[in-house]
Amino acid sequence: MVVLGAPAAAPAASERIAALQVGLRARGVYGGTVDGLNGPGTSSGVRRLQRRAGIAVDGVAGPRTRKALGVLGRHGIGSRPLQHGDRGFDVAALQFALVAPAAALVFTRPPEIAQSTGHRHGSKPEAPVLGIKPALVFGALCTAGFLCCVPMAMPQGHLVAFCGDMGIAPSEGAAMLSVLLGCAFVSRQFWGFLADRIGGPRTILAGSACQITAMIGFLLTRNEAGLFAVAAWFGLGFSGIIPAYVLAVREFFPASEASWRVPTVLLLTGSGMAFGGWFAGAIYDAVGFYAAAFAAGIVFNLISA
Fold first, then answer.
1. 283: which of 91, 220, 244, 293 fits an S-S bond (Cβ 3.0–4.6 Å)?
2. Do 167 and 230 lie in a common domain?
3. Residue 271 covered by a domain
4. Per-residue CA distances from 284 to 270, 278, 293, 301 (Å)
5. Domain presence at residue 120
């Protein structure tokens, strides 16, 4: 346990370690999670701080190390009455002690620790994923992410103009867009709950199915009240898809590869969103109505599924 004068060794969670991690993060020497666990990152952070401060590098968070933390290293736990606006080691420790019990009700197991293999990417054969080469699985995942995000962007970027095509006032179209985005915000919590139970790939399929039905609904619905309902359904459906791609990456590939696989997937999904917004506008400019653009989005969505 990294505490006052104690060596960085024990793995037990502690509000003192959490407070130390807060101070280390503030000094830019620790980039990990404030979890109260004394992992390798915490120990490395203590040593980096000691080197920077020009004190003995011994991995011990003693008085001199605490002093190097500045305000976040002062005030031991229970040394003063706390008031609103106070900062310090004791405040960080108290915050962790209050939050940790509630977090334990949700997070029942620690995340997998990425283990370095000592090999550069591409220099060691990788284990098959679903019986297929990992590169093919990852390529398919990225392609599906791009394709499913093309229709995802269309209602978000063009719903107000789409309503104008149908004779609905722009103010009503803007309200419809607000309903869409509000439902997306709320349903993100539901999709996270579902993904914890059925996994990322199945969540992607479920979200894509909701998105396809909503896109079809936009094409078939001709009254304002119906379009409000379709917009709400679209918002409820699409919001969990992109986070589910991140979960799929974690399910299919080792944690040690997440640092480049997750950004790659997010780049492709974001590119699909950008292309979808532009593509819908280009189709409208060519044919003069949005139904063709939304129909093209449905095709993209079907291919991704």
1. 293
2. yes
3. yes
4. 22, 10, 7, 19
5. no
Domain holding 79: CATH number?
Answer: 1.10.101
295 and 211 share one domain: yes
Whether residues 159 and 72 share a domain: the answer is no
Residue 184's domain comprises 134-304
Do residues 189 and 257 both lie within one domain?
yes
48 burial (CB, 10 Å; 0-12 / 13-18 / 19+) is: middle
If you average pLDDT over residues 165-180, what whole number do you get? 91
Give the pLDDT score at 78.
66
Domain assignment of residue 118, yes or no: no
In this predicted structure, what is the pLDDT of residue 105? 61
- Reported as a pLDDT band with limits 50, 70 and 90, residue 183 is very high
Please tell me what DSSP assigns to residue 4.
Answer: T
Same-domain check for residues 246 and 206? yes
Question: What is the mean pLDDT of the segment spanning 206-234?
Answer: 91
Q: How many residues does the chain have?
A: 305
209-237: average pLDDT: 91
Shared-domain flag, residues 142 and 20: no
* Dihedral sign for Cα atoms in the order 97, 103, 107, 108: positive
- In whole angstroms, give the CA distance from residue 249 to residue 145: 11
Is 117 a member of any domain?
no
Note whether 179 and 299 are within 8 A (CB). no
Give the Cα-Cα-Cα angle 196, 264, 231 (nearest 5 degrees). 60
From 9, 254, 214, select the one nearest 111 (Cα to Cα).
254
Cα(256)–Cα(267) distance, rounded to whole angstroms? Answer: 19
Distance from C-alpha of 111 to C-alpha of 196, rounded to nearest angstrom: 13
